[in-house]
C-alpha cells in the first residue's frame, strides 16, 4: 500500500472516533434528555402537595362553621306559634339565646327553662317547675338563688313583638354534662303572663303560662 493511502485511512478513522466522542459527551451533559420522566414526576408531586394544603384549610373552615344551633318554636294555648328561640353554644361555653316574639300581650313577661320536655295545652303545667339541677331557690334577688333556668324578664312592645338576645352560663347544650338542657325528661322554654319579681318562691309570682316550646335537637 502506498504512503498516501495509509495517511488517508488514518485520517478517516480519527474523524469517526471524534464524532462518537462528541455524541456521548452531549448525552451525558443533558440530564433532562437522559431521563425526562424524573422532571415530570417531581412537578406532579409538588402540585399535589399544594392541593392537599388547600383541602386542609377547607376542612378547618367547615368545622368552625358547623357550630350547633337548637331551634325552639313556642306555641300558645291555641297551638299558634307566638315565639321562636335559637340556642347556641359560645366559644367560652356559655349559651346564647336569641328570642323573637310575635302576637303576645304588651308588657313584661317572665321567661324560663322548665324541667320537663312536655308542652300540653292549655296550661302547660306538664312542663313542671323551673329547671333547677343545683337545688337552689328561685330568683336572682334570693339569698340562695337562682335556678339554672331563671332568665330576666322580656318586654313585648305595643305591636306584640320583641327581639331579645342574651347569654347564660347556668346551662349547657352538651349532652351528659352538668346542667345540660338535654336530660332524661327533657326541658322546655316557657313564657308567662306576668313579670318575674326575681324573689317569690317557687317561680317569681309570674302568673299563667302562655307559651311553651320543647328544647330538642
TrEMBL record:
Residues 42-59 have a biased composition (Acidic residues). Binds 1 zinc ion per subunit. Binds 1 copper ion per subunit. Its cofactor is Zn(2+); Cu cation. It is an enzyme of class 1 (oxidoreductase). InterPro entries: SOD-like_Cu/Zn_dom_sf (IPR036423), SOD_Cu/Zn_/chaperone (IPR024134), SOD_Cu/Zn_BS (IPR018152), SOD_Cu_Zn_dom (IPR001424). Residues 21-77, 124-160, 194-217 are annotated as: Disordered. Keywords: Copper, Metal-binding, Oxidoreductase, Signal, Zinc. Residues 21-36, 132-144 have a biased composition (Basic and acidic residues). It catalyses: 2 superoxide + 2 H(+) = H2O2 + O2. It comes from the Bacteria. GO terms for molecular function: superoxide dismutase activity. The keyword Oxidoreductase applies. Residues 1-20 form the signal peptide. Belongs to the Cu-Zn superoxide dismutase family. PANTHER family: SUPEROXIDE DISMUTASE CU-ZN -RELATED (PTHR10003). This is Superoxide dismutase [Cu-Zn].
